[in-house]
């Protein structure tokens, strides 16, 4: 295997930080492995040639694959179930009181292959049973096209859905051979879209609840702060922000802490 030189590695990290706001300097082996296979697939003689191609913008598909290869898509249904329990027992009852009439708007930022958005939609479905809730819309965004394609497909293997409660499996999945397909009623409230947290117009509108879990953890300090400000701007007053367990929003003028990596937009700080 032809290794990346230190200069090529630094150039790769600078490009990733500029394009995606990600800090990858601690992940040299992983980056080299993933990008070596890609460079070979494209039959390019060196990493310098590969980086020239990606930076030139001449091959949009290669650029999309680059974005997909340098991002981490690990996710699963019911991830951090205690946070979903908070939504069911605290956030949803509060929204029900506070917003009885207009639709509830939810954003999943960094939705990967769809498991988080589908879990949320199943939770909404359960919660709305025997209640008359307004419609709930879930906008799910990601930078990776292949991840979004898998999310839109919404078909998973048995091992993928092993954390889903049995009753939910029978209600919210239909069997397709060896695979399991998310049913239409759960899909209907979700729109999967390509958008990059950090881009000026990526978030559009304002949300009552934003889930942005295990995304900021890979961001540079600067990109993290900018993303948190952006998420804050796009939350309704008192809206909820759910982060991953290794992620913190420190600015108490913007967010109050509800525990369990869940925050609430400060009442006084209206956009
Ligand atoms: C580790 S997954 C987290 C998936 C899910 N939120 C969870 O917690 O299970 C992180 C996802 O964030 C996406 N991502 C990274 N940077 C992003 C950005 N600037 N805007 C939108 N999505 C991004 C990646 O493509 C990846 O699919």
From TrEMBL:
- Its domain of life reads Bacteria
Top enzyme class of this protein?
transferase
EC no. given is 2.1.1.80
Reaction(s) the record says it catalyses:
L-glutamyl-[protein] + S-adenosyl-L-methionine = [protein]-L-glutamate 5-O-methyl ester + S-adenosyl-L-homocysteine
Q: Quote the Pfam families the UniProt record gives.
A: CheR
Domain (CheR-type methyltransferase) spans 1-247
Keywords, A to Z, come to: Methyltransferase, S-adenosyl-L-methionine, Transferase
Q: Does the keyword S-adenosyl-L-methionine apply?
A: yes
Q: Would you tell me the protein name for this molecule?
A: protein-glutamate O-methyltransferase
Q: Which organism is it from?
A: Gordonibacter faecis
Q: Show the taxonomic lineage.
A: Bacteria, Bacillati, Actinomycetota, Coriobacteriia, Eggerthellales
């Amino acid at each position: 295997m032809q290794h990346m030189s230190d200069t090529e590695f630094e150039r790769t990290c600078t490009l990733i930080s500029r394009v995606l706001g990600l800090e990858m300097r601690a992940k040299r082996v992983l980056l080299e492995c993933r990008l070596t296979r890609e460079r070979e697939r494209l039959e390019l003689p060196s990493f310098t040639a590969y980086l020239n191609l990606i930076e030139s913008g001449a091959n949009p598909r290669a650029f999309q694959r680059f974005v997909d290869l340098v991002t981490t898509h690990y996710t699963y249904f019911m991830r951090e179930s205690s946070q979903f329990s908070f939504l069911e027992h605290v956030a949803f009852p509060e929204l029900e009181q506070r917003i009885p009439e207009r639709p509830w708007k939810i954003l999943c930022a960094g939705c990967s292959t769809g498991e988080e958005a589908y879990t949320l939609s199943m939770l909404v479905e359960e919660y709305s049973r025997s209640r008359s809730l307004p419609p709930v819309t879930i906008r799910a965004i990601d930078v990776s096209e292949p991840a979004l394609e898998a999310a839109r497909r919404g078909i998973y293997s048995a091992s993928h859905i092993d954390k889903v409660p049995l009753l939910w499996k029978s209600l919210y999945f239909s069997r397709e051979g060896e695979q399991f397909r998310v049913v239409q009623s759960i899909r209907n409230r979700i729109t999967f879209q390509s958008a990059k947290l950090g881009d000026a117009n990526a978030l559009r509108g304002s949300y009552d609840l934003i889930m942005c879990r295990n995304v900021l953890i890979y961001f540079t300090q600067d990109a993290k702060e900018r993303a948190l400000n952006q998420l804050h701007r796009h939350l309704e007053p008192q809206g909820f922000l759910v982060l991953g367990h290794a992620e913190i929003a420190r600015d108490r003028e913007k967010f109050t802490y509800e525990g369990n990596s869940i925050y609430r937009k400060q009442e006084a700080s209206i956009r």
